[in-house]
Amino acid sequence: MSSSDAFSVMAGVPRDVTYASIELHGFYDMEEVPEHVFDGLHFEHGSLKIDDSHHDGVAPVLHEHSFEEMYHLEELTLSYLKLTAVPTRFGPTIMDHIVRFSLKGNDITRVGDDTCYPQNDLVEVNLAENNLEYIHPNELCGMNNLKVLDLTSAAILYIQPGTFGHAENLETLELAGNGLVSLQPGVFAGLRHVEHLDFTGSDLTWIAPGAFDDTESIRVVDMPSQHLYYIAEDAFRGLTDIEYIDLSGNHLRTLARNVFDEDLDDHHHYHHHHNDDHVHIDLTDNPLICGCDIAWLTVHPFYTTGTCTNGNNHAISLSHLHLSCP
Predict the structure, then answer these.
(1) pTM (predicted TM-score)
(2) Cα dist. 240→46, 266, 301 in Å?
């Protein structure tokens, strides 16, 4: 069935029925989503998905009235359609009510312009597998209710400080698979509910002091197999609730204690006395040199995995390292 035939059928489906979900996919000739084709559809907390629909040619035209007058639609998915921008010409009856919006697998380069849009009800936004490269801080303006933002493999190279300040209730931020090279001071400021940040697949070479300032709840940070030769003082300042950090597969020869908050030990003793109060640091596959500058890694609250080499080039497990240091 061609897409035009499918939309003709769609226009004729009963309007006096309540739908849980409608999916349209598998077309190769889609030129547009016709206007008013979904008018009058009633959903029960339902979803509309146009997915995997257009592999060749250009993106289909989405008219201003293509998705108008649907009732109680909560989720809209427009995936793998070669869209180059976030559609903004939707009628208010849909964009004022959907809570989950997926644009996964398109060619989107910008979330929006520099304008701060009115507040919306979006709770989940999926922009994975796009070509964003950069996110302007105002592009999340109005998303005060946002809890999940998926930016996996979105070709992001740079995140400007303040980007997530508008998404003050964000709980899940997916960043794996991007090409991030550096993390600037205050880049995650305002993430007070996110517990896990995963940079797997990035190319991090530099973490600036204060990159994690104003991030009260982050417990896990994954930075394996990056290009980290050195981590600056105060790079992890602000991670007062950190429980696990993966720095495996990097190029670190040392790691100074003042990369963390100076009150980390006291904070963990006070907040984690009923549970495991260690900070687990994974430093496996790093060329660490055994010396007093890393002796702190063997002292509470830190529990470290990995090895270092002494003057005889013997690998010594960090968990069994005993140094006589002043």
Answers:
(1) 0.91
(2) 40, 10, 12
